[in-house]
User: Which sequence fits this backbone?
C-alpha cells in the first residue's frame, strides 16, 4: 500500500506519469458519458413529456443535453489524443458531469425525476477510474451541487422541507459511494501491483527455464497426446535430426513414434533404449507432464556420449594411477641404472659387463617409458600461440636435421601455408613423433616423406597432412595405432601416437589416420583463424 500512495502522489505532480491502464479506464468512462448524453438527447427528440424530462424548463434541458453531447465527444477525443495531466482531465470531466446532470435534474423537476441517481454513478466511476484519488472531493462537489439545486428550488418554487431531507440522504449516499469506491480502488491498486510483480517474476522464471532447456546437453521434447511436437531444444534436433515445433514424431522417427504410442496407453514414467535408423543409440525417458492437456515430456540422451564420458573418467583415473606408479618407479630405477654403470666399469669379467649393458639398456627404456607416462599428466597445460606454418616448419626442420641429417632430402614440403593456434612445444613433440615414425617406415628415396598444409573446402578448417611411401600400417592394426602401449617396434613404448593425439586434443586439434593406398597418412585438423 505505501507503493500505491507513492504512485498516487507521483501522478498528482507529473503530467506524463499515468500508466496506460489509467487512460484506458478513463476512455471507457468517457464512452459511458457519451452514451448517457446521447440517451438524454434521444429522450428530447422522442418525447420529453412522455419520459417526464425537462417538464419544468424544456429549454434548459435541451441546451444542457446538447452541451453534454458536445462535452462528451470533446472529452473522448482529448483522452485519445492528449494523454497528459490525468487528474486534471478527470476532474474537469467529473465537474462537467455534475454541473450538466444537476441542470437537467433541475429542469426535470428535481430529485423526483430520478436523474440525480446518475451522480452516484459518476462519483463511483470517478473513484474507480482515478484509483481512489480525489474521490471524497468529487462526492463533496456532487453534494454541494445537489444542495444548491434544492436551495434554489426552495427559493423559487417554495419546495417542501421534506425535499431537503431527501437531498441529505442523497449526499450521504454520495459519500458512502465515494468511500466504497476508494476502498475498492486501493484493493485494485494493490492487486494490480502484485500482479505486475508476479508477472515479472514469472517472465524471469520462464526465461531462465527456456535458457536451461536450450543449454541442456540432453534433448527435450514436449509432445501432445496426438504425437505432435510442441517444443524442442537444439540437442533434440541434433540427436534426432530436423526436429521443430509443429512436426509429428512420425515425421522425425517412426521407431520413436511407435514407442510413444505404446507408452501412451499407460502413461507411466518409463526409460528405454532404442537404436534409430540413423544408427544412434538413444536412451529415452517418457514422463507425463503435470497438467490437464495430456502433454508428455521426452528426455533423450545419447548413449554414445555417456559411454564416452565414462571412458574419459576411466582413462583419467587410470592416467593418475599410472602417473603415480611411474613416479614411484623412477627412484629405484635410477638406483638400478647406477648399479649397472658400476658393474660395467669392471673390464675383467666380460659376462658381467654384458649383463650390465643389458640392465643399462632396459633401464634406459624403462626410464623413457616413465618419462612419457609422466608427460601424460601435463597435456592439459597448453599455452596456445599464433603460429605461421612456413616459419615454424623451417625452424623445426632445421632442428630435426641435427638429429637425422638424411631428413633434409627425405622430407619434402608439398606446399601450403596458413596460421593456426597451437602450443609450440606440443607441436614440436607431435611432429617429432610423426616424422620419426614416417622416416622409420618410408623408403630411403628422396621425398619419401611429404608434408602438406591445405585449407578444407567449405569448412573453416586447416589440415596438416604427413604422408610416407612405406608399406603402410597393417589393416588389423589401424584401429589400435592410437591406443596406449600398442607398438610393433621391439624397443618402442607404444605411447608415442597416443601422446601425440592427446596433445592435439588439448590444443583443440584432432589427429587421425587417413586411409591411403600407399604408405601411412596422418592428418592434424585445426580450426581456421
Assistant:
Amino acid at each position: 500500500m505505501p507503493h500505491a500512495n507513492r504512485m498516487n502522489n507521483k501522478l498528482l505532480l507529473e503530467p506524463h506519469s499515468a500508466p496506460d491502464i489509467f487512460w484506458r479506464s478513463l476512455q471507457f468512462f468517457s464512452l459511458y458519458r457519451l452514451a448517457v448524453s446521447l440517451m438524454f438527447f434521444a429522450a428530447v427528440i422522442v418525447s420529453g413529456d412522455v419520459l417526464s424530462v425537462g417538464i419544468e424548463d424544456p429549454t434548459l434541458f435541451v441546451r444542457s443535453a446538447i452541451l453534454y453531447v458536445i462535452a462528451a465527444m470533446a472529452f473522448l477525443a482529448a483522452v485519445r489524443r492528449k494523454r497528459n495531466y490525468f487528474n486534471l482531465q478527470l476532474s474537469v470531466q467529473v465537474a462537467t458531469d455534475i454541473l450538466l446532470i444537476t441542470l437537467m435534474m433541475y429542469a426535470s423537476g428535481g430529485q423526483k425525476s430520478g436523474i440525480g441517481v446518475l451522480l452516484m454513478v459518476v462519483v463511483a466511476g470517478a473513484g474507480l477510474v482515478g484509483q481512489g484519488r480525489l474521490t471524497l472531493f468529487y462526492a463533496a462537489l456532487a453534494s454541494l451541487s445537489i444542495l444548491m439545486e434544492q436551495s434554489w428550488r426552495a427559493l423559487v418554487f417554495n419546495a417542501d422541507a421534506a425535499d431537503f431531507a431527501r437531498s441529505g440522504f442523497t449526499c450521504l449516499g454520495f459519500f458512502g459511494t465515494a468511500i466504497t469506491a476508494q476502498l475498492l480502488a486501493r484493493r485494485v491498486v494493490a492487486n494490480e501491483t502484485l500482479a505486475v510483480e508476479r508477472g515479472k517474476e514469472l517472465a524471469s522464471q520462464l526465461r531462465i527455464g527456456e535458457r536451461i532447456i536450450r543449454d541442456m546437453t540432453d534433448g527435450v521434447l514436449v509432445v501432445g497426446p496426438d504425437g505432435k511436437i510442441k517444443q524442442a531444444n537444439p540437442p533434440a534436433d541434433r540427436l534426432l535430426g530436423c526436429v521443430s515445433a509443429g512436426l509429428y514424431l512420425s515425421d522425425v522417427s517412426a521407431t520413436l513414434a511407435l514407442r510413444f504410442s505404446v507408452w501412451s496407453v499407460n502413461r507411466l514414467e518409463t526409460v528405454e533404449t532404442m537404436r534409430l535408423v540413423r544408427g544412434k543409440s538413444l536412451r529415452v525417458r517418457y514422463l507425463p507432464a503435470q497438467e490437464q492437456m495430456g502433454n508428455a515430456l521426452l528426455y533423450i540422451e545419447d548413449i554414445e556420449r555417456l559411454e564416452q564420458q565414462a571412458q574419459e573418467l576411466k582413462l583419467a583415473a587410470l592416467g593418475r594411477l599410472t602417473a603415480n606408479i611411474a613416479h614411484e618407479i623412477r627412484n629405484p630405477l635410477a638406483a638400478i641404472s647406477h648399479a649397472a654403470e658400476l658393474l660395467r666399469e669392471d673390464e675383467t669379467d666380460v659376462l658381467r659387463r654384458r649383463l650390465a649393458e643389458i640392465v643399462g639398456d632396459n633401464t634406459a627404456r624403462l626410464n623413457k617409458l616413465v618419462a612419457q607416462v609422466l608427460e601424460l599428466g601435463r597435456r592439459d597445460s597448453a599455452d596456445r600461440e599464433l603460429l605461421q606454418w612456413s616459419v615454424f616448419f623451417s625452424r623445426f626442420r632445421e632442428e630435426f636435421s641435427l638429429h637425422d641429417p638424411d631428413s633434409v632430402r627425405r622430407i619434402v614440403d608439398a606446399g601450403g601455408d596458413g596460421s593456426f593456434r597451437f602450443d609450440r612445444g606440443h607441436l614440436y613433440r607431435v611432429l617429432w613423433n610423426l616424422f620419426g615414425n614416417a622416416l622409420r617406415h618410408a623408403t630411403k628415396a628422396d621425398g619419401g616423406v611429404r608434408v602438406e598444409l591445405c585449407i578444407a573446402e567449405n569448412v573453416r578448417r586447416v589440415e596438416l597432412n604427413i604422408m610416407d611411401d612405406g608399406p603402410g600400417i597393417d589393416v588389423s592394426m589401424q584401429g589400435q595405432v592410437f591406443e596406449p602401449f600398442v607398438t610393433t617396434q621391439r624397443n618402442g613404448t607404444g605411447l608415442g601416437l597416443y601422446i601425440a593425439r592427446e596433445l592435439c586434443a588439448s590444443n583443440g586439434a584432432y589427429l587421425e589416420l587417413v586411409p591411403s593406398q600407399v604408405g601411412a597418412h596422418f592428418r592434424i585438423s585445426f580450426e581456421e583463424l
Remarks:
- The mean pLDDT is 79.
